[in-house]
Amino acid sequence: MKTLVFLSIVALSSAKPSLEKEFLHFLAERDILLQDPPQNTTDISQPEQISTAAPRADDRFFTCPLKCVCQVRVVQCSDAGLTSVPADIPKGTVMLDLQNNKIKEIKEGDLKNLPSLYALYLVNNRITKIHPKAFRSIKHLKLLYLSWNLLPQIPTNLPTSLLELRIDDNKIKKIQKGSFKGMKFLHVLEISGNPFDTTDIEPGAFDGVLRLIYIRMSEGKLSSVPKNLPSNLYELNLDHNRISSIEREDFRRYKDLYRLDLSYNQIKKIENGSLAYLPNLRQIHLENNAVKKVPASVRNLKYLQTLYLHNNNISKIEVDDFCPKELEIKKLHYSGISLYGNPVKHWEIQPASFRCVSGAHGVQLGNFKK
Ligand SMILES: *[C@@H]1O[C@H](CO)[C@@H](O)[C@H](O)[C@H]1NC(C)=O
Ligand SMILES: *[C@@H]1O[C@H](CO)[C@@H](O)[C@H](O)[C@H]1NC(C)=O
Ligand SMILES: *[C@@H]1O[C@H](CO)[C@@H](O)[C@H](O)[C@H]1NC(C)=O
After folding, report:
1. What is the total count of domains within the chain?
2. Which residues line ligand 2 (CB under 6 A)?
3. Nearest to 49 by CA among 70, 71, 29, 34
């Protein structure tokens, strides 16, 4: 039975292949379609089963809303000029796609009676408000995509079952305390392109969030690194902001970080030791800033493999800038360091500076390399 639904979803021929692929990927990744239904749980470690039993009469898609396409339990109403959420969405709907419409508001009753909804796509509408009770009866929503709307804040009372929330390119000026309250399963948050500064992230904004491992807070107005994000982050993207310096304690909380993106800011100064709080880093993006020297403590990051430093203001490279004095301290060699677009004269760099880089093309000096 489960396989049946899986195959039927795969077989959907649709104008929205990428979205479906994403959804399938989501289902497959979490084994939602492959696992036995857990008896009694709301824990994502055992995702609830999408019921694949033969639909009861009221679940059938006799009532596909106007301008929508309904197949299996997927309802697609994108690019349909809708100004509100259609009524009579079938009760068994698992995925509802309302992208690229002109919806202005999600009203209290718009999403009632959708107990199986797993994914809701509202990207690129004109939503300015979501009723605080709109999600009241939604218990299993995992993916909520609200990017490209006009929301002035994180909507209140979002479903606590969310795994992924995308709310890029809205008008969010503040992340209030308790914005994500109860979202203990939230894994991924994308909140780029909103006009809040670092100080607009209130203390306690992320209270209750326990498993967030990925944040994208790019293309905004951040003037410094936010210090009160969840501590178990694995990937932090802060590129294309207005950060001008990195203070010593900025990364103190983020000991698990694997990948850090600070590219396209205005960073001039990186305080000694600030990166030493990140012993697990594999990749740092610092390109397109105004950094004057290779950050101290880079050489002590045992697992760092990729370091992007191109298009900065580095004029001198010391022999121990990248590599520890004792080679065995470095557990993984660099696979790439980019340095082009800096004023350093490549002929003045001692080759030994790159003794812990593997591969012939591990260092990109760009225009300076002749
Ligand atoms: C099911 O969950 C409810 C509340 O979450 C709990 O009270 C009940 O004991 C659970 N039943 C079983 C069989 O685990
Ligand atoms: C930072 O480190 C560099 C070299 O590692 C050192 O020369 C400099 O004095 C240090 N600065 C401070 C403020 O500790
Ligand atoms: C680069 O550094 C020099 C001094 O070291 C400074 O005069 C210049 O303004 C810097 N350029 C940029 C783009 O920050």
Report:
1. 1
2. 272, 296
3. 34
Give the residue, by CA position, lying nearest to ligand 3 atom 12: 290
**Which atom of ligand 3 is closest in space to residue 268's alpha carbon?**
14
pLDDT in tens, 263-308: 999 999 999 999 999 999 999 999 999 999 999 889 999 999 999 9
**Cβ < 6 A, ligand 3 pocket:** 290, 292, 313
Which ligand 3 atom is nearest residue 313's CA?
1
Orientation of helix 17-29 relative to helix 2-11, angle to 10°: 160
**Which residue type occupies 73?**
R
| pLDDT tens, residue by residue, 40-77 | 444 444 444 454 444 444 444 457 888 899 887 899 99
Residue 260 is assigned to a structural domain of this protein? no
| Beta-strand relationship, 363-364 and 336-338 | parallel
Q: How far is CA 6 from the centre of its chain?
A: 26
Answer whether residue 180 is part of any domain. Answer: no
Q: What's the CATH code of the domain at 99?
A: 3.80.10.10
Please give the distance, rounded to the nearest whole angstrom, from the Cα atom of residue 40 to the centre of ligand 1: 6
Structural domain boundaries enclosing 112:
1-171
Atom of ligand 2 nearest to the CA of 297: 5
In a domain, 143, yes or no: yes
Nearest residue (by CA) to ligand 2, atom 12, is 272
Q: What is the DSSP letter of 349?
A: S
Query: Does 13 fall in a domain?
Result: yes
Q: What is the pLDDT of residues 322-343, one digit of tens each?
A: 999 887 788 999 999 999 999 9
